[in-house]
Amino acid sequence: MADFISTLSQGVAAYRGQGGALPTAEILVNALLQAEKAAKQQRLSYPFASLLGTWQLCFATGTKKARKRGGIILGKGFYVPKFVAVQISFSATLDQDSTKGEIGNQVQLGPVLLQLTGPAQYLGKKNLLAFDFNYLLLYLFGRMVYNKQIRSSQAQTEDFYDKSIAKLPFFAFFLVTEDFIAARGRGGGLALWIRQQEAEKTLSVG
Question: Model-level pTM greater than 0.85?
Fold first, then answer.
């Protein structure tokens, strides 16, 4: 097993409370960068089916602008506090196209659950998942209190698949396992999600 896989597995286990110490943010960022480099060198590809399910955000870096070169550099990274449940989910459409699906992103803090949903499309050769959110839902104590479309008619699902990837938000996945997934977002930040266990799930998305 590669060292970066061991480090990420250790972080996931510790975050779940299954023993061991959390690697420092710096160590985890380095492990993610090593995984990304390995994926490029080995030209790894993952099927869309391997992403299906619900995942809890465990660690993220964010980005900041570089002063000298005008580029973007990674932030230090941080573990997401457990009292804020941030989840992402992917589901497949029922048609024959295995690259199309839906994405859900939700944040729960106490009795309040904010949820965004929309279409997604996966480019398998690049491990790139493009998406767009077009509905916002708000739940309070498990009851839906708000449900509204957040895009104009020009951004309906049927138009989404005709858009250029360059105009859409996306995740470029570089590590996909049964237990966790990692990707770089369009903005340059890195993120690590862990598979949501059945007993921990809140509301299903989709």
Answer: yes
Cβ atoms of 31 and 4 closer than 8 Å:
yes
Q: What are phi and psi of 155, to 5 degrees?
A: -115, 30
Distance separating alpha carbons of residues 55 and 193, to the nearest angstrom: 6
Separation CA 101–CA 92 (nearest Å): 4
Closest CA to 31 of 194, 197, 174: 174
Residue 53, phi-psi category: left (phi > 0), alpha (psi -120 to 50), beta (remainder):
left
pLDDT of 157-199, one tens digit each?
667 878 887 788 999 999 999 999 999 999 899 999 999 876 4
Angle between helices 3-15 and 25-42 (to 10 degrees): 130
Q: Which domains does the chain have, with CATH numbers?
A: 45-200 (2.40.128.280)
Strands 170-176 and 128-131: antiparallel
Q: Containing H/E element for 3?
A: helix 3-15
In degrees and rounded to multiples of 5, residue 39 shows phi and psi of -65, -40
Alpha carbons 118 and 206: distance in angstroms, whole number: 8
